[in-house]
């Protein structure tokens, strides 16, 4: 199997003039600035912006889908949907990047606020 078809890559944080090259057998493993492993996007400079943006996109899609499906749902179904569908997305991997940047935290708080309005049957405008 050619290595370019394989999602195998490495991240190097060496501060030397010549980077270390890693091989798998006789094939060179390409260097990457970021990679996704177990659902967490890690960058070589440990900036979590890519991962937080990925989580935000994913949770906004799930929230939109949930609000469309449960628009007329009863008061017991909406908190269960939030707990089962939205909260695991927000909490997965939060130990790694939690409270990293103020802008990222405020974006996550906006999603939480919108989900709370949905769960408590509060209209978007008030």
Short description:
This protein has 126 residues and is mostly helical.
Overview of this protein structure:
- The protein has 4 helices and 4 strands, in the order ββββαααα.
- The protein starts with 22 loop residues before the first strand and ends in a 7-residue tail after the last helix.
- It has a two-stranded antiparallel ribbon. Strands 3-4 form a two-stranded antiparallel sheet.
- The protein is mainly alpha-helical and 126 residues long.
- It folds into 2 domains: 3-43, no CATH class; 49-119.
- 10% of the residues are buried.
- Mean pLDDT is 81; it is low at 1-6.
- Strand 3 and strand 4 (40-43) form a beta hairpin.
- Helix content is 46%, strand content 10%.
- Helix 1 (49-69) runs antiparallel to helix 2 (77-91) and helix 1 (49-69) packs parallel to helix 4 (102-119).
Show the helix and strand layout.
Blueprint: E1 23-24, E2 27-28, E3 34-37, E4 40-43, H1 49-69, H2 77-91, H3 94-97, H4 102-119
Antiparallel strand pairs: 1-2, 3-4
Helix pairs in contact: 1-2, 1-4, 2-4
Mean pLDDT: 81
In total, the number of strands is 4
**Strand order within the widest beta sheet:** 1-2
- Structural classification: mainly alpha
Helix content: 40-55%
What's the main sheet like? 2 strands, antiparallel
- Give the ordered list of helices and strands: EEEEHHHH
The N- and C-terminal alpha carbons lie at a distance of 57 Å
Strand content: 5-15%
Low-confidence sequence ranges: 1-6
What would you call the shape?
elongated
Our count of domains comes out at 2
Number of distinct helices:
4
Radius of gyration: 20 Å
């Amino acid at each position: 199997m050619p290595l370019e078809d394989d999602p195998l890559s490495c991240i190097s944080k060496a501060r030397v003039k010549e980077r270390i090259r890693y091989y798998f057998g006789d094939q060179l493993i390409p260097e990457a600035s970021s990679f996704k492993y177990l659902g967490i996007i890690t960058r070589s400079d440990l900036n979590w912006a890519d991962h937080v943006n990925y989580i935000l996109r994913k949770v906004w899609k799930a929230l939109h889908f949930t609000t469309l499906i449960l628009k007329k749902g009863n008061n017991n179904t909406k908190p269960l949907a939030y707990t089962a569908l939205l909260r695991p997305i927000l909490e997965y991997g939060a130990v790694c990047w939690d409270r990293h940047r103020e802008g990222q935290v405020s974006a996550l708080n906006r999603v939480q606020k919108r989900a709370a309005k949905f769960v408590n049957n509060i209209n978007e405008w008030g």
